[in-house]
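Take one record.
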Amino acid sequence: MDVAIGYHGSRRAAAETVRQLAAGGARAVALRADLADPRAAGRLVREAARALGGLDVLVNNAAIFVRTPLLTTTAATYDRLLDLNLRGAFFTSQAAARIMRSGHIVNVGDADASGRWPNYIPYTLSKTGVVALTRALAVALQDRNITVNCVAPGAVLRPPGFSRARWARVTRGRPVSVEDVVKAVVAYATCPPTVTGRVRRVDGRRRENR
């Protein structure tokens, strides 16, 4: 596939990804956008389609993850999490649905966003919302032959500052590999039209489709 990379602050990483894709024989472009802005979200999708001559697959994986204790979280932080993680996925999907004649939308959720993280409530709301969005879009776009599915990874990359002992506790010694997540995304990006509205957990501690 040819690939458009949407980025906000990671210009160098996006450029390097484009270079690697081009070295592998794909056409690739990097397009900057703040997906918390609905206008920018729609514009990114339209620019990607123009640059590549069409749109077959949309992967909604833009998100931020920050600690938000209940008593100190500001409205601005709450809005930023919901606007980027959930509203951004809605408006990129809306723009894609206007362009695609058929295709696939793959949303990226979180296997651990179950409401049990009291210091990450806005993030949890955003990711559980992504699951609800996936199922609603699957119904809304079925007549357009656009599948909508969700990949929900567990812990994948050890964050800076995490000790190996702490990481082992979080992952129970079974972190998810990047390759496992990629395989799940590719599977939904190439699945038959009858496979839609599904959530696939990619979690070293437990794996299931539902």
